[in-house]
Every structure is written in structure tokens, then in C-alpha cells.
């Protein structure tokens, strides 16, 4: 009778034993796996085995004045020194980017890296944003034969690039931007067959682009922008089939754009802006089938745009052709490109009647600048999805339609219901030259025959009567306004005296939501993608602080420019706050204000303002002596420096209070702006301790 329960108990016991054996087996396997991983890691990150390399690292630590915090002297470099990477007991990588010197090391910084010559297996050396004043030694290309990555951005390096760098046959990436390098670019760099990134931007190179650059076979990024290069663009660059990013802007390159650039079928971004290029835009560029960004602003290009160019460039997101001498009509395909979100053709001689804009693709927001051309006829239909559109300084006629976007500019045209338009004579003359009828601001044509004298006299009487009545009404209105103004002024003066607050001018009140802002004076219009790329998708590592009107992030733009980006969330603050800041920078310009480099207004719920980066932070963090002798930065401010800071702040405030018309009082309560800290620029002999608001 009890056989069945015993059998069940045995079955349960067997299952428990099997389960425990499986757990034990899994645990043993996990332990073995961990031991294998640990042994592999130890083999990769073993202790430094070479006494000569340890001595070299100690010498490098001493010559550069590195702090014990990063490189503790009594610890194994492979395990405990920040930025040191080892493999099989040898040093293969050193990264001191952004390190801070000790106080002693900051007194006389030099390009003192001779100890690197003894690290023969070194593959990567990154010293970006670490002060290394001096020249790159010739032995770099002779003793560091294993080097794959050399990053010396923003190191204050001077002198020429040694031609010996062309011997680094294993080099994959060379970053030398934001320095003071001079001379010509050595043609020997064209021998670097494995090179994939070459960034020489923001220096003082002269001469021409070496023709040997056409020999690159693996190069994907070539940036030589903002130098003093001249001559022509080498046609051989079209042979770099792997090239994805080409930036030659900010030089003095001349002649025409070589048609061979159209062979770069992998190119994603092309920037030839701010040069002296002439001729026409070659139709051969239609071969750039993967191109997303084309910027050729501020050149001397002329002629009409090729009709077969843009239909082949279906991936385009950004097109900037401003400040050239292009003529003719804009291709109709521009208005239907599926991904185009930024178009700037301002400052040319384009003409014709614009078609109605339509968007059938993925472009979620659009910024179009068609200003300073010779477009005419009626305004096209303008979808509200435009973030901003500038159609000013053309010859559009008629009326602005009610459904036109509010963030649009129509000044200096021939429109009827918009202020700040061209004169009647100028508009009539323009349309007469083209043999076209002109709407004449809705007034009867002066050449139209009159009716009989009786009706003319009757009309004249009515005009005189209307003028008299209108004049009386205007006088009464002005008297009423004056009385109201005096009453308000007296009430405001009493209130201010009672609270002990000084008067705030009318210019200091926030602008109404619909106020016109001169966007052309607010710097460059950045795309949202550029903002994301600059800040690493608003990474926590880029976060600076929470501001009154938005969060602040530091970032690096595509050209290597360091900036500070204010992220304004319109769901948490009033729209008038950021409009006020835009209005402020559109009207106020002074050397003692932190420059506003641009803005991004694409998104409805978020706006972004881009400012110049001030490397020494704000004054509140630099007023007092730092006790730690190994810390870097502004250790102590002497009285001369403090005086210059005070003068800089006074200059900025004096400009606001006395030189602006109307005067601006910077007050949190009255203006709605956050109080601006005193920011410190780089200390130079001519501007030590400069203060910027």
C-alpha cells in the first residue's frame, strides 16, 4: 500500500541530485572560463618587462611635468598609469590628451618628448589639447617606425612638418590641426599608403596642395581647411576612391573645380568654401552619388547650375552655394529632393519665378536662404514645416499669404502687406526691364485714362476732406499716447524709488513672440545632426553645467573648432527667453562678449545656441590660489591680471549701459536672462586675464 509514495520520494531525490550536479558542472565551467579570460588579459596587460622602457616613461613623466595622480611613480605603468597601454610587457600606446601639468611643469612647457625614441614598439601617441610648444623633431619619422596613430591637435606646435614623417609606413591617422605649423606641406606624406585620416586644418601652411596626395589609396578623411594654401586643387585628388570627407575651405585656392572630383563616388561631405575658385560648377560632380553635404560658399563661381547635376545627388541633405555669382534659374528638382533640409543660395544672381515648395521625403525640418538674389513674381506656397526661410532682398510682388510660416523673412521685396520693402520706382523699373506687368502695390496705374472733370473734382474734394479728418485723428491719437506715457512713467518711477531699483529702458524688455529677429547676424545656422555630432549625442562627458535658460555642453565642430552649446528646452522655459537672447546677440556686438558663432532652430521643442569656447572657465573658479602644487590651470591671479579682468568686465558693462541705443540693463528680473559669468580666454601677453561676458 505504501509502495507508491516511496517511489515518488526516490524520483524527487534523484531529480535533486541531478539538478545539483548540473549546478556544480556549470560553476566549474564558469570558473575555467574566468581563468582563461584572466590569463588572456594578463598576457595582454602584463607588467612592464623592459627596464629601458620604464626608464623612458619616467623621463617622459619628468620632462612633461605629469602629475602623480595620472602617473604614480611607484606603480606599474601597464596597470596603474592612466593612458598607458601595454601588450606582452611592452608599451604600445600613450594617451595624455587633456592632461594637466604640475605647477612646476607649467612654468616652461616644451616639446620635450625625447624619451619616446626608446619606446620602439609604440603604436599610438595622443597628446591632443596638451601644451607642447616647439617643433616636431625629425627623429619621429625614423625612431617611431611602429607608429599607427599620431594625434597632436591643439598642442601649440610651431615650425614645419618634418619630411621624415613620410617614413612612418604603418601610420593610419595623423592629426595636426589647431597648431601654428608653417611652411609647405611635405610631399613625402603621399607615401603613407596605409593612411586613412589626415587632418592638417587650422594652421599656417603656405604653398600648394602636394600632387602626391593623389597616391593615397586608403584615405577616407582629408582636412586641410583654414590655412594659407594657394594654387589649384590637384586633379589627382579624384584618384582617392576611398575618400569620404574632403574639406579644403578657408584657403586661397584658385582656378576651377577639377572635374575629376566627380570620380569620388564614396564622398559624403565636400567643403570648398572661402576660396577664390572661379568658373562654373562642373556637371561631372553628378558622380558623387553618396554626397550628403556640399558647401562651396564665398567663391567666384559663375554661370548657371547644371540641370543634370542635382537629380543624381539624391542623398543631399545640405547645399550651400551662397556668396558666389551664379545666374539663371534654380533647378526645380531642388524643391522635391527627399532628404534636403538645408539650402543656402543667398548672395548670387539667381532669377526666375519660384515654384510651390513640396516635400515628399524624409526631411523633417528645413532651413532655406534665398535672399539677395533676383527672384520675382508671386510668392510660392510655403509649408509650415520650414524652421526658417529667408526670401529677403529679391523682387517678389503681391501679398504674403496668410499661411506663410511666421519664422520667415520677406524684407526688401515688392510686397504689399509687409513693411521694409523696396521703393515703388525700383520695383517698377525692375519689372519694366523684364517686360512684365507690375502689381504696383495695388494702386491704379498712372497711365490709365481719367474720367470727366466733374468726377475728378469730386474725387479731389473727398481726398482733401479725408486728409483733414485723418490729420485731426492723428493729432488726437498722439496726445492720448503722450498722456498715457506720462502716467505710466510717473507710476513706474514711484515704484522703482520705493523698491530701490534703477530704471530699466524699453529696450530691456523681452521681445514679443512674433518679433522679427535679424537671423543673418546670428552666425552660422547649424543642423541638428551637426550639434549631435559635436557633443557626442549630448554625452555626459561633454556636460558642463545646468544654466538658468538651458544646459551647457562643450563640443567640437566638424572643422575641429571647440565650442560651447546651450541646449534650450522650450517645454521647461518660456519661448521669450531664447528669443530675447537671439535678439540680444542680433543687436549687440562687442569684443568683450563671448561670440555667438551660430544657432540651430530646426526642432520645435529644443533650440541650440553655439558660443565660442573659453578655455579657462569662469572667474569664480580662478580667483583663489590652489593649494595642491601639482594642480594645473590658473594657480593664482596677480594684481595686474585682476586689474585687466576688471577692466574687461567694465568695458562690457559700459557698452551695454552707455553705448547701446537704447541702453540695456542686464538684470535677471527685468530681462529674463541669466546673469552672465565673467569667462576667461587664453592668457596671452597682449590680453592677459581677458574677461568676456
TrEMBL record:
The keyword Repeat applies. Keywords: Glycoprotein, Kinase, Leucine-rich repeat, Membrane, Receptor, Repeat, Signal, Transferase, Transmembrane, Transmembrane helix. It is found in: Membrane. The chain crosses the membrane at residues 462-489. It comes from the Eukaryota. GO terms for molecular function: ATP binding; protein serine/threonine kinase activity. GO terms for cellular component: membrane. Gene3D superfamilies: Phosphorylase Kinase, domain 1 (3.30.200.20), Ribonuclease Inhibitor (3.80.10.10), Transferase(Phosphotransferase) domain 1 (1.10.510.10). Residues 538-693 form the Protein kinase domain. It is a single-pass type I membrane protein. This is Putative LRR receptor-like serine/threonine-protein kinase. It comes from Vitis vinifera.
Amino acid at each position: 500500500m505504501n509502495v507508491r509514495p516511496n517511489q515518488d520520494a526516490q524520483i524527487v531525490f534523484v531529480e535533486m541530485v541531478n539538478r545539483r550536479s548540473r549546478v556544480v558542472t556549470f560553476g566549474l565551467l564558469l570558473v575555467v572560463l574566468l581563468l582563461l579570460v584572466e590569463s588572456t588579459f594578463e598576457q595582454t596587460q602584463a607588467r612592464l618587462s623592459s627596464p629601458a622602457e620604464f626608464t623612458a616613461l619616467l623621463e617622459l613623466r619628468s620632462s612633461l611635468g605629469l602629475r602623480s595622480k595620472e602617473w604614480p611613480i611607484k606603480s606599474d605603468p601597464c596597470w596603474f598609469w592612466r593612458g598607458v597601454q601595454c601588450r606582452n610587457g611592452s608599451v604600445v600606446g600613450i594617451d595624455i590628451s587633456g592632461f594637466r601639468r604640475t605647477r612646476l611643469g607649467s612654468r616652461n612647457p616644451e616639446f620635450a618628448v625625447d624619451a619616446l625614441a626608446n619606446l620602439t614598439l609604440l603604436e599610438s601617441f595622443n597628446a591632443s589639447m596638451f601644451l607642447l610648444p616647439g617643433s616636431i623633431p625629425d627623429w619621429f619619422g625614423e625612431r617611431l617606425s611602429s607608429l599607427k596613430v599620431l594625434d597632436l591637435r591643439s598642442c601649440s606646435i610651431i615650425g614645419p612638418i618634418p619630411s621624415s614623417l613620410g617614413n612612418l609606413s604603418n601610420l593610419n591617422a595623423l592629426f595636426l590641426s589647431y597648431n601654428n605649423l608653417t611652411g609647405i606641406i611635405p610631399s613625402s606624406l603621399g607615401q603613407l599608403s596605409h593612411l586613412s585620416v589626415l587632418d592638417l586644418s587650422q594652421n599656417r601652411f603656405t604653398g600648394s596642395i602636394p600632387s602626391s596626395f593623389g597616391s593615397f589609396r586608403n584615405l577616407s578623411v582629408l582636412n586641410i581647411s583654414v590655412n594659407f594654401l594657394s594654387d589649384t586643387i590637384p586633379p589627382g585628388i579624384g584618384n582617392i576612391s576611398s575618400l569620404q570627407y574632403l574639406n579644403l575651405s578657408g584657403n586661397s585656392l584658385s582656378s576651377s573645380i577639377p572635374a575629376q572630383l566627380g570620380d569620388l563616388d564614396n564622398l559624403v561631405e565636400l567643403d570648398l568654401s572661402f576660396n577664390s575658385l572661379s568658373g562654373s560648377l562642373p556637371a561631372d560632380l553628378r558622380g558623387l552619388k553618396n554626397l550628403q553635404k556640399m558647401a562651396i560658399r564665398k567663391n567666384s563661381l559663375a554661370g548657371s547650375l547644371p540641370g543634370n547635376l542635382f537629380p543624381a545627388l539624391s542623398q543631399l541633405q545640405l547645399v550651400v552655394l551662397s556668396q558666389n555669382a551664379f545666374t539663371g534659374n534654380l533647378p526645380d528638382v531642388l524643391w522635391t529632393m527627399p532628404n534636403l533640409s538645408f539650402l543656402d543660395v543667398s548672395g548670387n544672381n539667381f532669377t526666375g519665378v519660384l515654384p510651390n515648395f513640396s516635400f515628399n521625403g524624409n526631411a523633417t525640418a528645413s532651413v532655406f536662404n534665398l535672399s539677395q538674389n533676383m527672384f520675382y513674381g508671386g510668392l510660392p506656397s510655403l509649408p509650415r514645416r520650414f524652421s526658417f526661410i529667408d526670401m529677403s532682398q529679391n523682387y517678389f510682388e503681391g501679398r504674403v499669404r496668410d499661411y506663410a510660416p511666421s519664422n520667415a523673412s520677406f524684407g526688401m521685396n515688392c510686397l504689399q502687406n509687409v513693411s521694409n520693402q523696396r521703393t515703388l520706382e525700383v520695383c517698377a523699373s525692375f519689372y519694366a526691364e523684364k517686360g512684365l506687368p507690375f502689381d504696383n502695390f495695388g494702386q491704379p496705374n498712372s497711365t490709365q485714362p481719367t474720367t470727366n472733370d466733374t468726377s475728378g473734382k469730386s474725387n479731389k474734394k473727398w481726398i482733401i476732406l479725408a486728409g483733414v479728418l485723418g490729420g485731426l485723428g492723428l493729432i488726437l491719437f498722439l496726445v492720448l499716447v503722450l498722456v498715457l506715457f506720462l502716467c505710466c512713467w510717473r507710476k513706474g518711477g514711484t515704484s522703482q524709488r520705493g523698491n530701490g531699483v534703477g530704471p530699466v529702458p524699453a529696450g530691456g524688455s523681452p521681445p514679443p513672440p512674433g518679433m522679427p529677429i535679424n537671423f543673418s547676424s546670428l552666425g552660422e545656422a547649424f543642423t541638428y545632426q551637426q550639434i549631435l555630432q559635436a557633443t557626442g549625442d549630448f554625452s555626459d562627458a561633454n556636460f558642463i553645467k545646468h544654466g538658468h535658460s538651458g544646459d551647457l555642453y562643450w563640443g567640437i565642430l566638424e572643422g575641429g573648432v571647440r565650442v560651447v552649446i546651450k541646449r534650450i528646452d522650450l517645454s521647461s522655459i518660456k519661448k521669450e527667453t531664447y528669443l530675447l537672447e537671439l535678439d540680444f546677440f542680433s543687436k549687440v556686438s562687442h569684443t568683450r562678449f563671448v561670440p555667438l558663432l551660430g544657432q540651430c532652430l530646426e526642432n520645435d521643442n529644443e533650440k541650440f545656441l553655439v558660443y565660442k569656447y573659453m578655455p579657462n572657465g569662469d572667474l569664480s573658479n580662478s580667483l583663489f590660489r590652489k593649494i595642491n602644487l601639482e594642480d594645473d590651470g590658473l594657480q593664482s591671479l596677480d594684481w595686474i591680471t585682476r586689474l585687466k579682468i576688471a577692466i574687461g568686465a567694465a568695458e562690457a558693462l559700459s557698452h551695454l549701459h552707455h553705448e547701446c541705443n537704447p541702453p540695456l540693463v542686464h538684470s535677471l528680473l527685468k530681462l529674463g536672462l541669466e546673469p552672465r559669468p565673467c569667462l576667461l580666454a587664453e592668457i596671452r601677453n597682449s590680453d592677459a586675464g581677458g574677461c568676456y561676458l
